[in-house]
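Re: duplicated header lines in exported structure tokens

Our pipeline writes sequence and tokens for each protein into one text file. With two proteins the header for the second block appears twice in some exports. Here is an export where it did not happen, for reference. First protein block:
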Amino acid sequence: MKEKIYLYYTSDLHSHFENWPQIIGYFKDKVKKHSEADDNYWLLDNGDHVDRFHPITEGLMGKSNVNMLNRAGYHFANLGNNEGITLAHEDLYSLYDTARFDIICANLKRHQGEQPKWLHSHKIVSTKQGAKIGIIGLTAPFETFYRMLGWEIEDPYAVLHRELNQIAAEVDIVILLSHLGINDDEEMARRFPELDLIIGGHTHHLFKQGEVFHDTLVTAVGKHGTHLGEVILEWDHTNRELTRSEAYAVSTEYLDKDEDTNQFIEDLSKEASSYLRREIAYLPEPEKIAWFSDTDLMIGLVRQLQKWTDADVGMLNAGVLLDNLPKGKVTYEDVHRICPHPMNPCKVELSGDELLEVIRAGHSRKLTEIRLKGLGFRGEVIGKMVFTGVNIDTFTDSEGEQHVKHVTYQGRPLSSDETYSLATADTFTFGRLLPEIAYAQTKHYYMPELLRDLLMETLKDMGTGS
């Protein structure tokens, strides 16, 4: 006897709700069909459904996302890093209190105190004919960030080994919800032949028809809900083996919208807005922004960052501010609109030579004109690097490229024998945008504060504080 199993999933939505009505419309049609045929089906989310760039998510601190998953009839969800490290400890601890689905993440736990009642390391479900399916969730191990927020994150490989040992004798099929990224997915497929299916995410990769690595089917749907995932498995009860494993990424571009879901999102938007409209300052004059030149607001924000972290030097890219502010009342909704990034303040220690190289790179078109996507940045372009705490002399060549001539700190040139503290955004500690910062030996992250929390203080200083 053979039995079919249908799985539908989302991953890395990042609160791009413009695609959610299409996704739910598709799922509703499939659920209706499978319910009428008495089929086995489950709906899953693989993490980063939450992203605080969106006013709905910010205003309701992620509870709106949980309501959406509840309303759609999801069965399981994994935690992504946007759920895990962009929310304050208590906000994450209570995030899923009203969830009507199971949250599965095996390598995360609370550092002290009672564990969240909603958190599971794995779940085992049965098909209608009795096949046992084990589902394990793992999330990216941003150890420093989780520790600062009061959580412990374990090595995903050691945890997966432990979980597989625990459920191996009980299950026929093993599914991994992996918010780890494509490289880890491939490696886990190699190391753990027990895995039948890996639903991947985090690195926003897209497999339109799934890929097979070391006999494990690996699937992924990119980001922002541009695709949804569909998996079809077939279990042979007689021979106790999978005889069919197929995975597809379905484009949502031309799918019909579910109008009830569309209305639900509009209602959530109004509810969230009511929380965001609290006044935080009154500006006597309008404040302009510019991505490739200095502005009073940007300089004020960098000074605030330098002061708040007690750093020698401050540095931020002008692209973090996305819009002007008019004269008059400023609300938290305005602050979120112009600075939506889930980026944290950070302080690193650099030698004089390293700091000089960062300043030089920060004045180059090669860096400032990058159209960055990800690493916490939710804007369009990096923009000019604005520095405080140092005096910088520059000149512009015949091609319009700016070059650094001299840099002084407290009236003296930067010394290669001295160490300087630089306050910036955590974005620059990731990747290779500024290697001197990314590879700095000493880094201090400030959490759960985001850049917009410092922007609020800046606006209060520039105007009449609320």
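Second protein block, exported in the same file:
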Amino acid sequence: MTVRKPVLAVVGATGVVGQTLLSMLPTRPDVWGEVRLLASGHSHGVTVRALGQDVEVREIESAAFEGVDVCILAVPASVARTWAPIIAAQGAAVIDNSGAHTANPAVPLVVPEINPHRAGGQGGRILASPSGTTLLMINTLATLHEGWHLREVVASTFQAVSDAGVRGVNRLYDEVAELVNNRQVGQSAGDVRRFLSDLESESPFAAPIAFNVIPWVGGPGDGRWSSTELRAREEVRTILDTPDLRMATTCVQVPVVSTHSASLHLTFDRRLTRDDAVRALTEGSNSVVVLDDPMRQEWPTPVDVVGTDPVFVGRVRQPADFPRSLELFVCADNLRKGSALNMLQIAELVAC
């Protein structure tokens, strides 16, 4: 007897996350019988490659989800809020990483390597996948928390422009192209802004991103903390089941195309050594790769990590003044590990 394979729908198939997800499908377990691709009206009729076949992208409408078992939403929060309940009502498990549902205690927040049990249950429900900021650090935090119990996390993240989608990537390239032949630019206040004032495209960033960093990522949040910073704090607490964990995050936009980085200062209830921490990270089933030999200039950087799936950890240090603390530097591809991969892993858990 032939067993019917589940149907997967990908909404936002023509965006950077959707395209990354589709490129990863052939490397994943052979789970899906059909893959349906959906996007906004302007992408209707576009042909996209999925699992070795040319698939025509359909416009989002209720009828498109008939017979769908699992649906991945790689769309903005406003779209996810509207469509996730509609799709779930038709019986599909809906996986959303936009942040639209992470504040809802009835919606499980899932990282399959840490809390796979949260993905259990029948179809017709919504599951949340964390932000790229959270996924950048959560595997490392979970492994060390298991051994020594985290008390405090102070994180400074350095986030790639691809978080803002194609517009973010194109804006960085456009600004660099405008500035690259002027070797005097960036040496006096306001000159970068002046040189970029004639660019036709509207920037998704609050300041120039080429030759610059911007100490704000995300929406207005509460006016002092950005939405990305607040979301990371709540997501880490939820995933680790540590509602009293003290955490402060500063998110910085940097001129990197893809791959987020972070500097982490972690404090624990129990004393630990650097060697113990490295051993736990190396031996744990956590998708973490330790690359830490400063004397040979071996540490993770975005240009070396982009296009890969693990989280890379380096610069592991124990400050002499903080015997219960560690300093680490982590890198992970924000489109793969920070988005598409986690959603695919959730989808596979649900489908199987």
